[in-house]
């Protein structure tokens, strides 16, 4: 009869609907399982990337330490303009006299001009004087005398200007970048002091009362 036929159709529709629902549940379960596996893979890939980044940073750091060892006997003089037919040893003698060295007791040193670009967006090229001492102790003493003088300027070279002359350690690119960033933090008032020692960069934080704080060696940017 028609009623029985309609009943069979309804029953078939229900069975089909149940199969569709069951299939949809299976698809959803598969989707959830795939999402879970994808998340696990993504987590593992991210972990591997972080591990690779850490290894690369460690490799770069240790490579920089090796480079730094080659610069431990070097100092850089900044602020002395290059003159035609200049005598670098005469410049060295006058600077040495200004920081307390008698002319008959100058440390043995190799002198040469080097050029470097300024940090940041500027493309300005600076001509610097590099001092290469025979040993690290001689360099350390020379640098210490300069730091104690605090008044080295162009007048010490016989020039009619009081523009400052600076002496810095010869830093690797890694440590120059760290020092540059630290100096910006100092300028912003976030740290108290920045300096280098044996090619490494140190900072001093502010204490609770604004006085002296912790002194920390910085190895990473």
TrEMBL record:
Coiled coil feature spans: 13-40
Keywords (A to Z) from UniProt: Coiled coil
Source domain of life: Eukaryota
Name of the protein: Putative kiri-29 aae
The species this protein was found in: Corethrella appendiculata
């Amino acid at each position: 009869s028609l009623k029985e036929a309609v009943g069979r159709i309804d029953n078939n529709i229900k069975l089909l609907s149940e199969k569709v629902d069951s299939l949809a549940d299976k698809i959803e379960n598969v989707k959830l399982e795939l999402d879970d596996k994808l998340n696990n893979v993504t987590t593992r890939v991210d972990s591997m990337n972080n591990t690779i980044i850490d290894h690369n940073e460690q490799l770069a750091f240790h490579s920089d330490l090796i480079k730094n060892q080659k610069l431990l006997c070097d100092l850089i003089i900044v602020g002395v303009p290059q003159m035609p037919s200049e005598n670098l040893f005469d410049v060295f003698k006058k600077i040495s006299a200004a920081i307390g060295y008698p002319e008959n007791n100058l440390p043995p040193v190799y002198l040469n001009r080097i050029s470097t670009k300024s940090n940041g967006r500027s493309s300005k090229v600076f001509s610097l004087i590099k001092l290469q001492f025979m040993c690290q102790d001689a360099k350390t003493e020379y640098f210490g005398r300069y730091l104690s003088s605090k008044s080295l300027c162009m007048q010490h070279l016989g020039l009619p200007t009081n523009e400052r002359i600076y002496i810095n350690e010869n830093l690797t690119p890694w440590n120059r970048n760290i020092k540059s960033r630290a100096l910006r933090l100092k300028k912003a008032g976030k740290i108290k002091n920045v300096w280098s020692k044996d090619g490494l960069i140190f900072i001093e934080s502010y204490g609770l009362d604004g006085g002296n704080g912790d002194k920390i060696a910085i190895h990473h940017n």
